[in-house]
Each structure stands twice: as structure tokens, then as C-alpha cells.
Amino acid sequence: MYVVIVAFDLKESSADFAELRAWVRGRAADDYSRLPGMRFKAWFSDERKRLWGAVYLVESMSSFDRDNLPLLPDGRTGPVGTRPTSIMVLELEAFVTGPDGLDGIEALARQGLSMAGGGHDH
Predict the structure, then answer these.
(1) Domain residue extents for the chain
(2) Which pLDDT value is given to residue 121?
(3) pLDDT at residue 120 above 60?
(4) Closest to 6 (Cα-Cα) out of 48, 50, 53
(5) pLDDT at position 105, please?
(6) Model confidence, pTM
(7) DSSP category for residue 67
(8) 88-95 contacts: CB < 8 A, separation 24 or more?
(9) Is 39 helix (H, G, I), strand (E, B) or coil?
(10) Gene3D superfamilies per the record (predicted)?
(11) What are the beta bridge partners of residue 86?
């Protein structure tokens, strides 16, 4: 298994975090949940530093084409519209769950700023 970390430095971009969050909530979360070979995807952001990205856990790199990141399963890309600033592909060394076990992980589905419908004040 592999951990893939994809990051976008948006300092030179006009990308709007509200638009990115709406895209995750309205389309990407559902689309990525159907990506073959992907165990999970977690998006992250730091508005102050203008960073946006995601962490994936994938079964094999043969089911996950790093040259086509960040394409959706249907071949389209998200609203950033540019290649990521960085892509790291790492082999998974170990995976553990917290005290809530897999139920705790399942409870994370549809959580976060994007899924809540907005951002937060700094």
C-alpha cells in the first residue's frame, strides 16, 4: 500500500477556498469515494498559508496514476486547474486505528470544513 500526499501552493493562484470547499462537498467527495484502489482520501487546507491538498491511501500505484493527479475518476480535474506543487508517493509502513477503531474512521466520513459548508475565521 502507498500513502500519496498531494499539495498545491495557491499563493500565485486566484483559487478561492470557498469554491474549493463547495467542490469537495458537491462533487469530489462522491466522485473520489468511487476511485478504484483508493482506501481513503483526506483533504487539508491552510488558508493563511494558501495551501490546499490531500492525503490518499491507495492499494497499489498501478491503480493510481500519479501522472494524472489530481484527476477525478471521470478524467476531469478540480477547480484549482493546475498541476500540484508537490506529489509524494510513500510506501505504507504501518497503519493503526485509534481507540474508536474502524468505527472511529467511518465516523470521519463527511467531516471537515468542506463538508460543513464553509470555512472558519482566523
Answers:
(1) 2-110
(2) 44
(3) no
(4) 53
(5) 63
(6) 0.78
(7) G
(8) 88/3, 88/4, 88/5, 89/2, 89/3, 89/4, 89/61, 90/2, 90/3, 90/4, 90/5, 91/1, 91/2, 91/3, 92/1, 92/2, 92/3, 92/57, 95/1, 95/57
(9) strand
(10) 3.30.70.100
(11) 7
* Rg over CA atoms, the chain: 14
Cβ–Cβ under 8 Å, residues 55 and 86 = no
Place of cell 493546475: 82
- Evaluate whether the domain defined by 2-110 bears CATH number 3.30.70.100: yes
What span, in angstroms and rounded, lies between the C-alpha atoms of 29 and 51? Answer: 19
According to the model, what pLDDT value does residue 76 have? 59
Q: Which three cell numbers stand for residue 43?
A: 483533504
C-alpha cell at 116: 460543513
At 14-47, the pLDDT tens digits run 889 999 999 998 988 888 888 888 888 899 999 9
